[in-house]
Amino acid sequence: MKFCCSTLQLHICVWLVTCSLQTGLPYQYHFVMLKKNWTEAQGYCQEKYTDLATITNSQDLSSLMNATVVNSSEEAWIGLYNDINSWRWSLSDEYFYGTGEMEYRNWENAEPNNKMGQETCTTMDNVGKWNDLNCENSRSFICFTGTSNSYILFTQAKTWYEAQKYCRTYYKDLASVRNQTENDQIKNMIQGSGVIWIGLFRDSWKWSDGNNVSFHIWNSGQPDNEYGNDENCAVALLNQLGHWNDINCTYALPFFCYIDQSKIKKKQILSVVVQSSQDVSSPAVKATILEKVSRTLMMVHLTENTVTMSQYIPYNFTYVFD
After folding, report:
1. How many whole angstroms separate alpha carbon 154 and alpha carbon 87?
2. Residue limits of the C-type lectin domain (predicted)?
3. Is the per-residue pLDDT at 2 higher than 70?
4. pLDDT 10s digits, 173-213
């Protein structure tokens, strides 16, 4: 399609000959038959593609399943993992904590254990020990008022997120526990109140490339961290329509990588017919032609372009650009 002509000194007509094609889907999936553990698969995908597969909707899932090799394994790694080391306090002000106080922990033996694969919030019991628990459970809770070592205990049961919202609305935040002294202070306050929410929580499932997890298609009963077996990585079950299961990250399995097509530069090839009494093959004229082509692209709002002259066809005074 001819889209612009210039008549300054040189007569230049620019023709769009062809351009690269892209599908409407942002992710192009590749099934890799090599067997690697999750971390090795992640490194392979980041080196050769973009990353381990991210799945953001049912259309992505269909595209991923279409990339599967016939008679392949029953399961394959995707980029989903459980970030079990992301524990942090609801009150995030770094100036509130002294050296090492953000990292203070007083876990019960064998905790945190991520029972059933869904424990991302923290309780304290009446002996001062901590346990990870599903945030949707309802428990009493303790708020920090915002003044030094001042807490208020609430015995009405709320989920962790409800308790966090309440504390932030009426006080400062859910209680942080910065050291053994504060742990003992809160322990003494909660005698007879059972276990209570404190402000420690962690992230749950994340994509390797940092994308938010807004789409879930777990297989029935998953994730379950079966037998407390550190099942912190996810596979697509190829015989279950690609539904997900959590398993131990050390297993050697094939895997899915993806290429982010939105970050691939599209290439357009332009054919330029030049009419001039000058020598159109001379460096000065070629520079003028290149400048006029760039200006022409800007006129039609193609501003983010790098234009190079790749070929000159002398018999019809045509330049090819890409």
Report:
1. 24
2. 29-144, 146-258
3. no
4. 999 999 999 999 999 999 988 999 999 999 999 999 999 89
The residues, any chain, with a CB within 8 Å of residue 291's CB and separated by 6 or more, are none
Peptide bond into 223 cis (omega under 30): yes
| Residue 247, H or E segment | strand 244-247
Q: In this predicted structure, what is the pLDDT of residue 24?
A: 53
End position of a domain, from candidates 201, 217, 247 = 201
241: left (phi > 0), else alpha (psi -120 to 50), else beta?
Answer: left
In angstroms, the CA 25 to CA 83 distance is 28
Domain range for residue 192?
A: 88-201
The per-residue pLDDT of the chain, averaged, comes to: 85
CA 63 remoteness from chain centre:
19
Query: Other CB atoms closer than 10 Å to residue 135's CB: what's the count?
Result: 21
> What is the model's pTM?
0.72
The set of residues, in sequence order, having a beta carbon less than 8 Å from that of 100 and lying 6+ positions away, is: none
The token pair at 91 is 């009150």
Which among 200, 210, 212, 206 has a CA at the least distance from the CA of 246?
A: 206
The dihedral through the CA atoms of 158, 164, 170, 175 has a sign that is positive
Would you call 300 exposed, middle or buried from its count of C-beta atoms within 10 A (0-12, 13-18, 19+)? exposed
| Span 139-176, pLDDT tens digits | 999 999 998 889 999 999 999 999 999 999 999 999 99
158 shares a domain with 222: no
Query: Do 73 and 104 belong together in one domain?
Result: no
